[in-house]
Design a protein that fits this description.
The radius of gyration is 19 Å and the shape is elongated. 43% of the residues lie in helices and 33% in strands. The model has no long low-confidence stretch (mean pLDDT 84). A hairpin with a 5-residue loop joins strand 1 and strand 2. The chain is an alpha+beta fold. Helix 1 packs antiparallel against helix 2. It has a five-stranded antiparallel sheet, covered by helices on one side.
Length: 137
């Protein structure tokens, strides 16, 4: 195999490895958050931050406003939705980490789809790395 193709495959393998590492990191963070977030707070959806993906689809990230121990927090949620999931001024229960009130997740929200997508991304990245490694050798 020509050297330029080996270099391109190597770069592709590194990109796929990076995808796998990012997905694995997100999975571990979400699992750890679910362990640490033991306190609850009622939050209000005050707005949405929108983000247009490369395929021109818009994701909606709710911005939550809540109070804990006299401190006021306004924070956009890390995960986005295909549409505005809640109406503005809706109340949502958040489970948060008492050591870091900005680490939270939505109580009762089903993360199964998120876990599956992240795991598939991890497997795809790892699979491409293995395939590319096999092609180069």
């Amino acid at each position: 195999m020509e050297t330029k193709y080996k270099i391109m495959l190597g770069i592709g393998a590194l990109a796929c490895l990076a995808l796998s590492i990012i997905c694995l990191y997100k999975i571990i963070n979400l699992i750890n958050l679910k362990k640490k977030a033991v306190s609850c707070v009622q939050a209000t959806v005050v707005n949405y931050r929108t983000h247009e993906n490369s395929d021109k689809r818009t994701s909606y990230h709710p911005i939550f406003h809540y109070h804990i121990a006299g401190k006021e927090y306004t924070d956009p949620y890390e995960f986005g939705f295909n549409y505005p999931y809640w109406e503005i001024n809706s109340q949502v229960t958040l489970k948060y980490n008492p050591d870091n009130q900005l680490q939270y997740y939505i109580e009762g929200f089903n993360f199964r789809k998120t876990y599956i997508l992240l795991f598939v991304g991890f497997l795809l990245g790892l699979g491409f790395v293995i395939m590319l490694g096999y092609c180069v050798i």
